[in-house]
Amino acid sequence: MSAEVISIPRAALHVQVAQRLRQLLVEGRIGPGAKLNERELSERLNVSRTPLREAIKMLAAEGLVELLPNRGAVAVSLTEEDVLHTFEVMAGLEAQAGELAAQRITEQELAEIQAMHFEMMAAYTRRDLSTYYTLNARIHSAISAAARNPVLTQVYQQVNARLQALRFRSNQDGEKWKNAMNEHEKMIEALAAHDGNAMRQVLLSHLRNKRDVVLEQLRAARGEKAAS
């Protein structure tokens, strides 16, 4: 008796390709400003160019990729001014979402976020940055969803997409990664206490600290480039 062959719908394929490509961009394996070479990526991801192109369009809509005339697709590269403006908006969005989530979160949602937090702590202990960041992003998204404001959630996702790669790299400094973990502990405490004001304050502080680390890294990279 032969096994039934199940074909993957084309729509599902380009979504899967987008997920894999997103990880390459976020983790810096495709650096800021780098051109997305379709032939190389097709071979690397073992897919044809059609779903790859559809995936690239998805990531362009998210803000991870720019489609430039005569250059094709390139990984987004934010200037210092871009970073300042984007984090300014992001801090307000996350603070608002956190405050609403603390007021509206259900016991089941809280339990799920706490479970992800414990998994994230384990990844931090192993120094597994890739798994840590995946769980970190899921926690922030779950907090946004718990706010129960679909407009806020949609805007949050759009703005956050521009910062994913920078937020990932901000944890590559050991001491700053430790500080981020401590801030996440405070978020869990504020959610469990349904303390909207405490949640707002810890998220504002969290985003300011992320912004400062990202700016420090951008300036250091710019200095290294100028010296070489």
Automatic annotation (TrEMBL):
UniProt keyword Transcription regulation present: yes
PROSITE patterns on file: HTH_GNTR (PS50949)
Domain HTH gntR-type: from-to ranges: 11-78
Signal peptide: none
Entry keywords, A to Z: DNA-binding, Transcription, Transcription regulation
Domain of life: Bacteria
Keyword Transcription regulation listed: yes
Pfam families: FCD, GntR
Protein name in UniProt: GntR family transcriptional regulator
Organism listed in the record: Ramlibacter alkalitolerans
Native organism taxonomy: Bacteria, Pseudomonadati, Pseudomonadota, Betaproteobacteria, Burkholderiales
